[in-house]
Specification:
Elements (H helix, E strand, L loop, with lengths): L1 H15 L8 H4 L4 E19 L7 H4 E3 L13 E3 L8 E16 L2 E14 L10 E3 L13 E9 L5 E9 L4 E22 L2 E24 L11 E17 L14 E16 L1
Antiparallel strand pairs: 1-4, 1-12, 2-3, 4-5, 5-8, 6-7, 7-9, 8-9, 9-10, 10-11, 11-12
């Protein structure tokens, strides 16, 4: 919170130095006070290289019994072992969704609320180098006449909401700066199963961890001109960038499996909807 306070102080200095941008501010009828709601839907966010290479994956995750329908290959059921014990899931991408109240006092806005994210990547997809696999011949070659088993790591959503706080200052009719702090939650799973006919068939899911992203960020908003009476209302487009850390809570299923989280920054962009229910000019 100390860092957020520093960021807000910087924004305060911007207010003092931005009178040039409001030389004709009377024309824009800036409200002295307003109370409303803020919505963000399907904001695109990324934490680059959040998942590093995960190595030394135990055998219990890499051993899968042959598929029951593969009797044309195996006369009796066998346990297939995937020899590769490391996988690199890649960057974390997700849709951010949030809702909360906001209050505006002249050029300043303050908002807070709850958020829920929908992970887009890493995701397990056939023929996308997102898994480790082995076929009946002991290789990872895919194609007609092969039957493979696989494992991989992916991010999934959770019903547990996070939260956010933001302070924003308009430096002109169309642009504003903000500082924010927030936390977001998601889960990490290891899944294994069968790669048949270019489709994954799950054998088992292992919940590896419940993760919480902590973010401190600065942002730039662009407000389309909607007329003299709509200062800071309706919608905006934004880009945020800042520092991030990940709190990992391993599950009992994960045991001694080391999942590597190496990111320390993030970026997001999207649009917000602002609706003012009470306004005083």
């Amino acid at each position: 919170m100390v860092r957020l306070a520093r960021s807000v102080a910087v924004i305060g200095l911007v207010i003092l130095s931005s009178n040039w941008a409001f030389a004709d501010e009377e024309k824009y009828k800036i409200p002295n006070f307003s109370l409303g709601m803020n919505f963000q839907l399907l904001t695109i966010e990324t934490v680059p290289h959040n998942f590093g290479t995960t190595g030394n994956i135990p055998l219990r995750f890499r051993q899968i019994p042959s598929h029951p329908d593969d009797t044309w290959i195996y006369q009796n059921p066998v346990i297939k072992t995937i020899s590769s014990d490391s996988v690199k899931p890649g960057a974390l991408f997700y849709f951010g969704n949030r809702i909360g109240p906001e209050v505006a006092v002249y050029r300043l806005k303050f908002r807070s609320g709850i958020n829920v994210i929908i992970p887009l990547a890493p995701k397990l997809m056939p023929d996308a180098n997102s898994t480790r696999e082995v076929n009946q011949f002991g290789t990872s070659v895919r194609g007609e006449g092969t039957s493979l088993v696989y494992y991989g790591i992916e991010a999934r959503g959770t019903k547990k909401p996070g939260f956010y706080y933001e302070a924003e200052v308009h430096i002109s009719k169309k642009f504003s700066l903000l500082a924010g702090y927030g936390k977001e939650n998601y889960n990490v799973f290891l899944q294994n199963g069968y790669d048949r006919w270019n489709k994954f068939s799950k054998y088992r899911n292992y919940h590896l961890s419940s993760n919480q992203i902590e973010k401190r960020y600065l942002g730039l908003n662009w407000w389309p001109d909607r007329g003299e009476d709509d200062f800071g209302d309706f919608g905006d487009l934004f880009v945020n960038i800042g520092k991030v850390s990940t709190l990992v809570s391993p599950s009992q299923e994960a045991g001694d499996l080391p999942v590597n989280y190496g990111a320390n920054w993030f970026m997001s962009f999207g649009s917000s909807l602002h609706l003012a229910f009470l306004k005083s000019k």
